[in-house]
Structure prediction request, 479 residues.
Amino acid sequence: MPTVHITINDKNLTVESGLTILQAARENGIEIPTLCHFEGLPDKANCRICMVEIEGMRAYQPACATRVSEGMVIHTDSDGVRAARKTTLELLLANHSVDCHHCLRIGSTKEPDLDPRFCEMCFWCDCERDGFCELQTLARAYHVDVLPYIQHDKDHELDLSLGSVVRNPNKCIKCRRCVEVCGEVQTVHNLSMANRGRATMVVPELGKLMADSACVRCGRCVEVCPTGAVFMQEHKDEVLYYAHSYDHDTVVQLSANVIPELTALYKVGLGEITLKKVCAALHKLGFQTVMSSEHAEKLAADEMADTIERNVENGPVIVSNSFAVKNFVKKFFPDMEAQIYFCKGSEKQFAKYVKRLEGDKPVKSVLITNVLEQAAEAKEEADIDFVLNARELYRLFLRTGGAPARKYEEELDKVWEDPPIRYEELLREADWNFGKEPEEVTVTVNGKKRKCAIAHNLGQVRLLLEGSYTKYDVVRLMA
Ligand code: SF4
Ligand code: SF4
Ligand code: FES
Prediction:
């Protein structure tokens, strides 16, 4: 592999040629701030926050879009670079509704005041990303204490039409991450940039409301947005009301997929936050039953396994339990809708269980998961009352003094017997990814080896449904 010799911040390095300065720096433990860059998405180099100084060049260059070359001498944190980044942040904030600046959190800028835990104790701020917004974090790191530039009018209306994915154009920094993920990875192409200059904004298909647009509610734009410009509609205040209400019972299904993000938000070591600790904290807040989503996931996998066994002899079996895939197929492959077996997802299995509980008191169901399409499905198909993700749960705990990082643990409530696991390689809980090609696996079904494919994003779903699904005995589609 050809290499080049470079120097970053007086450190002599030998790095692979062809890398960007950002990649070379990060591989060697040198952090350069980024906003528009997102690992796995194409670089647009439009935010200018990653600017670095390269000796011999008159202007600062974006580290995410500049490739290393032999003998390059780079400074990533000089006074000039820091000042340029601060100005960039001030300019971004001039076009950003800063309702996290209303109090002393950033405005008076003593580091301890900026602790996100402190933020949650007050009710001034109504930004869903307060405390874990990438722009806010950088504003903090570069001591943006006052906003010297004109605050342009930020009076765009929020698009709440879906009831799940919400757009707030007043918070958008035009980094295009959402546009890329929706277009390049999910191939939905619902989001695009409209207008020019200061009027530039991200809009759904033809400027429609989200509910009327091509959005399939996969929630991936929410995951990549660095600010509060796209977020999942929150329910934590209502959830808390019902947790404290004597007139209702509350049943929670808790998914292990929130644990990594909770651990990161609490800034504690791996293993310090566990399902049992979260369970204890939820019981303490007033939730009666807290069960693990593992049971419902096993039931969901069991239904898919049955479907596969029943139909595998009759040609390719295409199965999915994803809400976003269902919407995607309706929108882009309507002719194939009847050919795909849509099974119940774990959230529907949970809803089915909750229905059986209705007794003297009404029951409110709460799904805690980081799978955002489940939140949209719960809203639209109305089986589950509320969905919280890891960020909402974190803020709920901060606001109420719940503390899953403490030592108290409680067993999760066991509510049904789990079915045996079949075809784990194919039906396991699998991650979304940025890849272009579906994963291939082989499993033995009804005594025969079967060639299977798993789509880990909607781009891969498209590829399979356009024809390549015929190469397989079983295809599983995820969004
Ligand atoms: S939720 Fe998915 S389909 Fe809808 S705009 Fe976001 S990325 Fe696109
Ligand atoms: S909505 Fe978020 S991800 Fe999309 S361009 Fe604006 S800030 Fe970036
Ligand atoms: S991260 Fe490099 S220009 Fe935005």
User: Anything to note?
Assistant: The first strand starts at residue 3 and ends at 8. The pocket of iron/sulfur cluster (ligand 2) is lined by residues 172-178, 202, 224-227, 229-230 (CB under 6 Å). The chain has four domains: 3-77, 110-135+146-232, 236-295+346-400, 312-343+419-477.
